[in-house]
Amino acid sequence: MATYKQLQREPAFRELFSKRITTLQDIYNIFKDSTFIAIDTEHFPITSGKDRILHQVGLAHIQSLTRYLSQTNDTSRSTGRPCFEDFYNENKIRALALNINISQEKRERIIRLKGEGGVPTRRRHRFGREQQVDLENLEETVIEFIQSCEGKGSLVLMGFEMAAEWTYLSRNFSRAVPFFSAWVDLRDIGKDISSSVGKDIQPGRGDLGGGIADNAGDDAVATCVLASALLDSENHEKLRFRQECSRIAGRKGYRVPDVRDRFTVSICAQGALPSTINSGMNLARQFFDYSPQSAGIMSEEIAYLTFRSQDQMDQFVAGIHGLVLPTGDILSVQGYSRANRSMESEDDERKEKRELRQRKRLEGTASEVEDLGNLFSSQFLSA
């Protein structure tokens, strides 16, 4: 993919790149006199991350980001959250999902390399129109959509983590660039608000299982929702809270506390951890008021929290040990001893040594396997 630095040097993109909006104040300065087109692209790899096929382009036009959703229907009242469909209708958003046709020759090559599931099945669109288009006609179709959008003032391009979007914009529909007076990556705005960037604010739902992947048109609409939400000051504190919880939670998966964490407690119930504390993120949210330094899951039945001082740890133990959750689970909290950590550290060292010995035994056969791999890859690529 093309990098931002490479695109900045291109005469065709230099002017628009210089109009990048990166702060919340920048948005406030222009949003009343601008209309917005959100873009999202979906692709999939063939042989590697660099060998990708553009699969879908989503566009959504919103005339103004000032019209906030009025929570009037039953769904909104019951959940207390904005409903995408209401937002879409109230703001008169126009959305288009463009499915890129893949030639039979390419499909056969993908099947040879990746099997029948090589081309992902995408969710049916919920908003706007969906249209099939050949790659050579993509640019014309995108421009037609842009020209059909009504609105006063400047037209601003927006997205979330836009490296892929800029790559395809520059490669496949570059004649659309002059229509925009500025552009904004909402990731920058989230970073400006929270002073960190997390996954909680990104639009889209990824692969939902069963081979069902994102729909770019719907994700473009979700980008409009996100942009509007980021302008609402009530959401700024929520975003900062989520980012801090994400920092406390750290990486996912089972792990043990760091040996350097002196003030650590283990938490368990009568069996598997209840859903309210069965992940680092849930732990951070549940016990945020106790100011934990980090949180993690050691097993299905044991969680841990670390603190910055003995006083903080003691306050947590006094307040939570024996607590009965709404589920009926009774929490047991106790200090996590250094002896346990030392034993686990020694076990980890022994495990690493065993794995090292196994890798050395396999080194003799690894080169033979690599040679065979080169033969197979060249055969597929020439087919």
Automatic annotation (TrEMBL):
This is Uncharacterized protein. Residues 339-362 are annotated as: Disordered. Residues 341-355 have a biased composition (Basic and acidic residues). It comes from the Eukaryota.
